[in-house]
Each structure stands twice: as C-alpha cells, then as structure tokens.
Design brief:
With 364 residues, the protein is α+β, with helices and mostly antiparallel strands. The protein has helices spanning 34-44, 79-86, 115-124, 151-154, 161-165, 167-171, 178-188, 196-205, 218-222, 229-243, 252-266, 271-279, 282-287, 293-299, 301-310, 331-344; strands at residues 3-10, 20-27, 64-67, 70-73, 96-99, 106-108, 111-112. The strands form two sheets. It has a five-stranded mixed beta sheet with strand order 2-1-5-3-4. The protein is built from 16 helices and seven strands.
Length: 364
C-alpha cells in the first residue's frame, strides 16, 4: 500500500508553547483523501491531533484546511493528488503540508475559530429575506427562472476556504470578505427581497465592503463548490453602480468608471490618469476639484514613489496623467470592438448559462 508523509502544523494551547511542525507516516490508497490520512495519524500516532470534520463528502464544509499552501477541503483532496502536487518540481521527496486555514485565529492544531471572522461577517450582511408587506399565509411563490441568478451563491456550504485564501483580508482584516459578500448577493438577487437598494448602498458605502476586493481570483480557485465569490462581488458592484447609480464615498465606482474609460481609449491602463479621473473626473473636475480630491491625490504620492522603486512605474513620465501611449497598429480598434460586444451581450454567467445558439436554451 502506498505510504505518504503528512507534515502538519500543530498548536497545543494547553502547552503554552508556540506552533510547531510534526510529521506523520500514513498508509493509504492514493484515491483516499487527505482527511483519511489525518484521521489515520490521529488514530495510530497521536490522539491529541485536533481536526474538525463531519460528513467526509464535501457537503458539511467542516474540514477546511490548507494543503500545500492552498485552501481547500481535506475530504475532497485525494492524498495521491496532494502528494503529486507537493513533489511536482523535485520528483518525490517533499511531504504533504497541512496547515490550519488562514485569516482566522487557530484554536488547536487544524481547528480554527470561524465565529470571530467568518460567522460574524456573515451576520453583518443580514443573511435573511426582508420582504415587503405582510407575510403570505403559506410560502412566497416565485417563478423558478427568477431564482436562476442566485443558484451559484446558494451553493455555498460555508466552509471558509475562500476566507482563508482571501488576499484582501490579509491586508485588511475588517474586509467583509468573499463568503459574506457572496451570501449578500444571494439576497440582493432574490426577487422576494424588498431592501435591495438599501443592502447595496450599505455594502458600497462601507470602506471594507464591495470595493475592498482586489479582484485577485484567489477565492474562485479555493471554492470547492464553484460558488466563485469574486464573481458575486462583481455582481454586487454592477448592481450598485450600474443598476442603482450608487455613488459611494470610497470612490470605488468612480475608480472603476475611470479605468473602463481609459482602457477603452488607450487599450492599457494609464495609472496616473486613472488616479486623477477617480478623484477629479472630467474637465469640470479639473477646473473645480471636489472637496477632498487634492488631499486624496497628495496621499497617493507615497504609493507612486513605491511604484517607481519597485519598477511598476518604470519612468517619471508615467506619473504624468495622459502621457501613457495608446496601443499601436490598430490594436485599439480591436479593444473598442470588445467593448461594443460586451455592451451588446450583457450576459451573466452562472451555474446556469443561457446560450445564444439553437432554438432551445438549456441550463448547464
């Protein structure tokens, strides 16, 4: 039977010592899960090894951990695949590294405190319906087609893998987070809810809300159920800015609009012009900057200096708005064609995708 080495990050609070690493040898078929390996180590080697698990079928979401640095479910990750990933570069000498999830306090070994981060932020977005009027005698009746848009967010099992993988939460622990915002869209998109604009305004005005997401795709890669939390956050942004015209105090919408406009005109992003258009958009903004615009622009100078030092802005002219060159050889026309196509085909991709070809539209 194949043998594998699990390198597990341990933390025993009762010992009053810091975290440490411990390796365990397990014997399992390669088709069994990393969770099976952890439970074998707990059963045979050290009964004090703490891990949270229940269904062992990727349904309950209890066994979220980091395996080889990636946030995932231990029960869904085959131990053979985890070993291959750990040794992709050196041919087979590395152990499978298992750690508790990130962005959460560790209670013991692989068990994290999800209440202090995950569940607190889930409650922050008011995760229940707020319908108008008196409740019906029985249930609310809606057309099945009207619920398709939220099926993806409804698939969430609250495992916290996206929270663990979120880079924004590493920088800003107060960020509401991908799981909670995906849950928020589940109710924003529900036709039975009567507080859609109020929900969106709340999440847009919050400095740790929908515009705190850096669009890094980490939560999409981590999600074991295909919820794609970042996509739900982008839907919240579009609903807030495009559908309800909410102008947030964080300049999030203006920043997005400036980036879209500049790329349409030049094909690539002019960082300096984007900053200027965010805080003082248009000719009117230049002639009469809004209150706080000059302060915000001055506060961005340290960021520009760091950009020069790190090479993101390779020359001083990059700091001058409007100097950034357009794409050459007609490539800009192709960018504009993409823009036109996007405006003409505003299709939301979800678990159920409606195709444009054929007589019948089927969900996938």
């Amino acid at each position: 039977m194949p043998e594998y080495t699990l390198k597990i990050r341990r933390y025993q609070p009762e010992s009053r010592e810091g975290p440490f690493w411990e390796e365990f040898q397990v014997e399992l078929e390669d088709s069994l899960s990393v969770l099976d390996g952890i439970l074998q180590a707990k059963d045979r080697d050290d009964g004090s090894l703490a891990v949270r698990c229940s269904c062992r079928a990727a349904i309950c979401g209890s066994c979220g951990v980091k395996i080889n640095g990636q946030s995932t479910l231990a029960c869904k990750t085959q131990i053979g695949h985890a070993d291959a990933a750990a040794n992709r570069r050196n041919g087979g000498s590395n152990p499978i590294v298992v750690e508790p999830m990130a962005n959460m306090p560790v209670v013991k070994d692989l068990v994290t405190d999800m209440e202090s981060t995950h569940w607190t932020k889930i409650r922050r977005v008011t995760p229940w319906l707020l319908p108008a009027g008196d409740p019906p005698e029985r249930e609310y009746i809606v057309e099945p087609e009207s619920m398709i848009d939220i099926t993806q967010s409804m698939a969430c099992i609250q495992c916290g893998a996206c929270v663990s993988a979120c880079l924004s939460m590493e920088v800003d622990p107060d960020f509401i987070g991908p799981a909670a915002l995906a849950k928020a869209y589940r109710f924003v998109g529900d036709p039975r809810d009567a507080e859609t604009k109020e929900r969106l305004n709340d999440l847009a005005q919050d400095p740790h809300g929908i515009y705190d997401c850096t669009h890094c795709f980490a939560c999409i890669d981590a999600c074991p159920k295909g919820v794609a939390p970042m996509d739900q956050i982008m839907r919240l942004r579009r609903a807030a800015g495009h559908d309800h015209d909410i102008d947030d105090a964080n300049n999030g919408r203006r920043h997005e609009m400036a980036a879209v406009k500049i790329i349409e005109q030049k094909g690539t992003l002019d960082e300096a012009l984007n900053l200027q258009e965010t805080y003082a958009p248009g000719i009117k903004g230049k002639l009469k900057p809004p209150r706080g615009a000059m302060k915000a622009l001055l506060q961005s100078i340290p960021t520009a200096i760091r950009g020069l030092r790190t090479g993101k802005m390779r020359s001083l002219p990059k700091l001058i708005p409007g100097i950034h060159a357009k794409l050459p050889d007609g490539a800009q026309d192709e960018v504009k064609a993409i823009y036109r196509h996007a405006e003409e085909h505003r299709t939301e991709l979800n678990l159920y995708i409606k195709g444009e070809g054929g007589d019948e539209e089927e969900g996938t």
